[in-house]
Design brief:
Length: 265
């Protein structure tokens, strides 16, 4: 696949305007997204279904969002356009779905206990998602956004998530067939769904200075040592500051378990 994005909106500075310089918005940014996707699809074979795909992608452009070049504007480089990885540039992504389920009636081929079809209408499903990290711009100073390296030149860690679901279909008959009138039937699906089965702590955001989600570099910086030592309780200050900067939004959602019912009629 290949896609071009043109005339994307971006902030720029009108330098030399009367009576003073001012900011405005124009269609300045552009970018390209290119790559390929390989897919393997095993249609239902007996009780088993499998589907997997791998995507290799390169997303580059002059800006990822409106206002992304404000720092360039402040240095009178409002017309400068530099190609860099876009914020959503994920180089590698793997997705796989594994499904195993038993049919009902004459299609059932599972274990039985007398006449009881133990796993009739029961199915299990795994969804695995693996991807490389997206880019961010590293900073050289915890107290400023001074760029270290290049724009979006650093990468977040890889992410892995596995979701699991087990469910059972229970057929219902609301009204039996009689005198040529079709029976009214329905279905109840009872399911247990577990998102992030292994409770993986995926990092989705970091502090630009350190590349860590729980440390912005302030406590270990030379400039902060005098401030910390002048506190009533320096250790308490360090502990509370560490709690404050350990931002939950820098991590993916932890394990979530849902038990539910779906009624079709």
């Amino acid at each position: 696949f290949y896609r071009e994005n043109r005339d994307q909106m971006q902030v720029f500075q009108n330098v030399g305007a009367y009576p003073q310089d001012y900011y405005s918005i124009d269609n300045l940014d552009f970018g390209t997204v290119k790559g390929m996707t390989l897919t393997y699809d095993l249609r239902q074979t007996a009780n088993f279904t499998f589907r997997a795909n791998y995507t290799l992608q390169f997303a580059d452009g002059t800006g990822s969002a409106l206002g992304g070049v404000v720092n360039l504007n402040a240095t009178d480089f409002s017309t400068l356009r530099t190609i860099a990885p876009l914020n959503f540039d994920q180089r590698h992504k793997v997705n796989a779905v594994v499904d195993y389920r038993y049919g009902t009636g004459v299609d059932y081929n599972g274990p039985t206990l007398g006449k009881w079809k133990v796993l009739e209408g029961v199915g299990t499903n795994f969804v695995v998602d693996l991807g490389s990290g997206t880019p961010y711009s590293a900073s050289s100073d915890p107290n400023s956004r001074r760029l270290r390296g290049t724009i979006n030149g650093s990468r977040l860690p890889w992410r892995f998530t596995c979701d699991f679901q087990v469910d059972k279909d229970i057929p219902l008959t609301f009204k039996k067939e009689k005198e040529g009138v079709a029976a009214k039937k329905g279905n109840v699906n009872v399911y247990l769904n577990v998102n992030n089965l292994f409770n993986t702590q995926n990092i989705v955001g970091v502090y630009a200075n350190t590349g860590n989600p729980d440390d912005d570099g302030y406590l270990s910086s030379a400039a902060a040592q005098t401030i910390i030592s002048n506190q009533n309780d320096p250790q308490s200050f360090r502990d509370l500051y560490s709690v404050k900067i350990n931002d939950p939004s820098y991590y993916s959602r932890p394990r979530v378990i849902r038990l539910g019912l779906l009624l079709d009629f």
